[in-house]
TrEMBL record:
<dbReference type="InterPro" id="IPR050406">
    <property type="entry name" value="FGGY_Carb_Kinase"/>
</dbReference>
<dbReference type="InterPro" id="IPR043129">
    <property type="entry name" value="ATPase_NBD"/>
</dbReference>
<comment type="similarity">
    <text>Belongs to the FGGY kinase family.</text>
</comment>
<feature type="domain" description="Carbohydrate kinase FGGY C-terminal">
    <location>
        <begin position="276"/>
        <end position="474"/>
    </location>
</feature>
<keyword id="KW-0808">Transferase</keyword>
<keyword id="KW-0418">Kinase</keyword>
<dbReference type="InterPro" id="IPR018485">
    <property type="entry name" value="FGGY_C"/>
</dbReference>
<feature type="domain" description="Carbohydrate kinase FGGY N-terminal">
    <location>
        <begin position="16"/>
        <end position="241"/>
    </location>
</feature>
<protein>
    <submittedName>
        <fullName>ATPase</fullName>
    </submittedName>
</protein>
<dbReference type="Pfam" id="PF02782">
    <property type="entry name" value="FGGY_C"/>
</dbReference>
<dbReference type="InterPro" id="IPR018484">
    <property type="entry name" value="FGGY_N"/>
</dbReference>
<dbReference type="Pfam" id="PF00370">
    <property type="entry name" value="FGGY_N"/>
</dbReference>
Length: 534
């Protein structure tokens, strides 16, 4: 087997997926059977600078190079081969946000991430104008808000894109974007698989008096669907990725995608009536729709699969950050006792304590709001833990309530899809770090959504693996073979998964918790108003 893989590496019969997540940059190299040959990661963090959540793009390049270097070393140590050829490459990243460049390719303002809740006026006006939900984090909302703010940089814009599109441009020089990520920049016309031309014209009318030297079509990336070629690794891109000079230029790249799209691929959730849930710093559910929704809902975004099928997306800005912070506190206690903590064991022990808890979490309450929360209408966040003297305050309840809180805002959005729009969901597939401890995350998620939740054996590979699969699809698909069929008959034909059904006691317990959660939102608002930032 090692010899077979070694030959695949030498011949370039591989696909590489690189994903820039909110906390990790990850790379995964797969063979033609979608098995992982090597993987690596680099930890990075966002920063709140001058009122905007952002990432240092110099660190981004350093992280990209370090991640590839680690992968290259792992492959060389394991198989005795230096990577020179790769069959195909794909780049993905956290969706939406705002990267604006001038004609020289220089950033006009620091990268504004999806996490910012600074575009309320723009998003509201565009939603009303288009009669289509425009979330605050979408690129067009950031652009229009900058226009409303009379920001000087807007006049000099030559190109705007997302993080995945920016990485792709650095590697290829191509201003391209996969349709899934593009659908978080500007609304997509499902039949044309392009930006909605009527809304493009409406936007042009809206800003006609500004007399900018650009049009929206001239500054947006070109839209590509899964399976299309979207550029080739340039000489400068090859040196950027692999400064050693080993990697050859000319490698084809598939359309860059958002992490929502790669999560759907990684869980085989691109078929209509299926859905996926991704948990991390944020949490989002992607439900592939059979028909258009009857109304515009502030809590529901309409995006697409990597093939262009419409998706109802429910995204909550906050999920696991507060849990990780509390686990860090437990680690400090462990170290203060003179012990060496095993973090995997620490997570496992504490997560499993949640299974011993009272069904509703013992009357405790938690808001893991590190940033504002769009679904509950909070412009800023304050992580908050609340209890009364009558609450049952023990470790089991403490852990259950924090896990419940991670799914609470998402539940509010999902209720609109299932109860108001009567959307049928055949199955939900989950992925993300919260599900690494067997059963616990699935049970909490199933209780929160009252839907069976499956965790596929491939889900732990994450979005970078899903991106590598999209890259593989581009060069290995059959003639006229769609992505749905490719995933079903090739990628996941032998995949195994564990499905967890909602437990009635847990479901009723979560309902009681949600009563406290919704009634307690004014407490969170008061914390925002009266507990100042540094």
């Amino acid at each position: 087997m090692d010899q077979t893989i070694r030959q695949a590496i030498v011949r370039g019969e591989t696909s590489l997926g690189i994903e820039f997540g909110s906390t990790r940059i990850k790379a995964v190299l797969i063979d033609c059977n979608f098995e992982t040959i090597g993987s690596s990661s680099y930890v990075w963090e966002n920063q709140l600078i001058n009122g905007y959540w952002t990432y240092n793009l110099n660190e981004m390049i350093n992280g990209l190079q370090e991640t590839y270097h680690q992968l290259k070393e792992e492959v060389q140590n394991k198989y005795g081969v230096v990577i020179q050829k790769i069959g195909s490459i794909g780049c993905s990243a956290m969706m939406q946000g705002y990267i604006a460049m001038d004609q020289a390719g220089e950033l006009l303002v620091p990268f504004r991430t999806w996490r910012n809740a600074t575009t309320e006026t723009a998003a509201s006006e565009l939603t009303e104008k288009f009669r289509f939900k425009i979330p605050q984090r979408w690129s067009i909302a950031h652009l229009y808000q900058a226009i409303l703010n009379d920001e000087k940089h807007v006049h000099n814009i030559d190109y705007i894109t997302t993080l995945s599109g920016y990485i792709h441009w650095l590697l290829t020089g191509s201003k391209a974007l996969g349709i899934g990520d593009a659908s978080g920049m500007f609304p997509i016309d499902e039949s044309a698989r392009q930006y909605n031309e009527d809304m493009v014209k409406q936007f042009a009318d809206l800003i006609a008096d500004k007399d900018y030297p650009w049009t929206l079509n001239s500054i947006l990336p070109r839209v590509y669907t899964a399976g299309e070629h979207a550029g080739y690794l340039s000489e400068s891109g090859a040196r950027l990725l692999d400064p050693s000079g080993n990697l050859q230029a000319g490698i084809p790249l598939c359309p860059p995608e958002g992490d929502a799209g790669t999560g759907m691929v990684a869980t085989n959730s691109v078929k209509k009536r299926t859905g996926s849930i991704s948990v991390g710093t944020s949490i989002f559910a992607m439900i592939v729709l059979e028909k258009d929704l009857s109304a515009v809902h502030p809590e529901i975004d309409i995006v697409t699969t990597p093939e262009g099928s419409p998706v109802g997306m429910v995204l909550a800005n906050n999920c696991s950050s507060d849990i990780n912070a509390w686990l860090g506190l437990f680690r400090e206690f462990y170290e203060a006792m003179g012990l060496e903590p095993d973090m995997n064991q620490l997570y496992s022990v504490l997560f499993n304590k949640a299974l011993e808890a009272d069904a509703d979490g013992g009357g405790l309450l938690s808001y893991g709001y590190y940033s504002g929360e769009n679904i509950t209408g909070l412009a800023k966040g304050r992580p908050l833990f609340v209890r009364s003297p009558e609450s049952s305050f023990n470790l089991a309840n403490f852990m259950r309530v924090h896990l419940f809180s991670a799914f609470a805002a998402l539940r509010l959005g999902m209720d609109i899809l299932t109860q108001k729009e009567h959307v049928t969901i055949d199955r939900i597939l989950a992925h993300g770090g919260l599900f690494k401890t067997p059963l616990v995350g699935q049970k909490m998620c199933a209780a929160a959504l009252n839907i069976p939740v499956s965790l596929m054996s491939t889900a732990g590979e994450g979005g970078a693996w899903g991106m590598a699969v999209l890259a593989s699809y581009m060069i290995n698909k059959g003639q006229d073979e769609g992505l749905v069929n490719y995933l079903a008959t090739k990628v996941f034909k032998d995949a195994e998964g564990l499905e967890v059904y909602p437990d009635r006691v847990d479901v009723n317990g979560f309902a009681l918790f949600m009563e406290r959660y919704t009634k307690g939102l004014p407490i969170e608002q008061a914390a925002v108003e009266h507990f100042a930032e540094k």
